[in-house]
Amino acid sequence: MAWSTRQVAELAGTTLKAVRHYHEIGLLDVPERTANGYKRYGVPHLIRLVQIRRLSELGVPLSEIAAMEHGDREPDEAIRVLDAELEAKIDRLTRVREELADLLRHRAPAHTPPGFASVYGDLSERQRSLLAVYSTVLSEKSAEEFRELISEPDATEQEFEALPPDADDAVIADLAERLVPGTLRARERSPWSRDPTSDSPQGSRQAARAMADAAAELYNPAQLRVLKRLIELTAETAEGTGDEAR
């Protein structure tokens, strides 16, 4: 029995292009040609094509097929490696589906950082921009801590968010003082907030720089003055209570 290239491809459930590619990379022997120049494939070629298709269906790369058969890798080892890769892929896809479900449940946009869909709708555009930067430098654990901190904003924090850029000194000083208790409670409840970049995958220094640069660009002058005064006041309070060493 002999078949043309098209016929053997159809029998094996593959394509002409695939058969020609297998010839090019050495996975399939090129058959002898008839007197009129046409290639004629036999049963061994069909068997070989079926084997290649089966391995491809399992996800074995064509380069690995060659290595397995040349003795460069034991078949069992190759299968174990493939299984581990598929397990990792399944885990990733499962996580992505969970994130998509979370986005749909909270009607959050697709670009929302993972884990923040539940709070994204309550954030201002400035806060969303800050979150986009923070999500690139915070570790997964730190991102969870940050989400907890912003999930229950109080009236004073909302007042800070709405502070106009031309706020006068008295307003700035008053707001900074009223922010101190909430800041100290947050530090007590979440020690992480004292040094949020300590476990950053990007390195603490680079992460802190990115967060500071984002804040400097996205907050208006009055808000930056409030933050500066807030840092001074919380440091003074901590020093007065002996909390600075904790």
TrEMBL record:
Listed Pfam families: MerR (PF00376)
InterPro entries membership: DNA-bd_dom_put_sf (IPR009061), MerR-type_HTH_dom (IPR000551), MerR_fam (IPR047057)
Entry-linked SUPFAM superfamilies: Putative DNA-binding domain (SSF46955)
One Gene Ontology MF term: DNA binding
Keyword tags: Coiled coil, DNA-binding
Region (Disordered): 184-213
PROSITE patterns from the UniProt entry: HTH_MERR_2 (PS50937)
Domain of life: Bacteria
HTH merR-type domain span: 2-71
Coiled-coil regions, chain positions: 79-106
Cited PANTHER family: HTH MERR-TYPE DOMAIN-CONTAINING PROTEIN, REDOX-CYCLING DRUG-SENSING TRANSCRIPTIONAL ACTIVATOR SOXR
Record-given protein name: MerR family DNA-binding transcriptional regulator
